[in-house]
Amino acid sequence: MKIVMFGMDACPDCTEAKKELDAVQADYLYQEIGESTTNMKRFLKLRDKETLFDQVKADGKIGVPCFKLSDGTLTLNLQEVLQKLH
Asked: Which residues pair with 32 in a beta bridge?
């Protein structure tokens, strides 16, 4: 299963998620949203249209790490991703 992970290197939850995905040798593409305006725009476009982020935005949070699974499913839950890998 190919996973796209949106995150930021400055985010401790993101660095921990990368470590866990690496530990299970997951096939994932890491999109560092702070690296370029292209990456940031790609993430914001996703975040602005998905109801998954409604509470995140209401809480004043960013919403990373965010995982997009190969079937198009979005989740903010690393454990859900790890379960689907097994």
From this structure: 7
Contact 3, 81 (CB under 8 A): yes
- Please tell me whether the peptide bond between 65 and the residue prior to it is cis, using omega within 30 degrees of 0: yes
Strand partners of residue 74: 68
Task: Give the Cα separation of 14 and 32 in Å (integer).
Answer: 10
CB atoms within 10 A of CB 68: 20
Burial (CB < 10 A; 0-12, 13-18, 19+), residue 71, is exposed
pLDDT digits (tens, 9 = 90+) for 32-41: 999 999 999 9
Per-residue pLDDT tens digits for 13-60: 999 999 999 999 999 999 999 999 999 999 999 999 999 999 999 999
Q: What are the beta bridge partners of residue 73?
A: none
Please count the CA atoms within 13 angstroms of the CA of 32 that sit on its side-chain side: 8
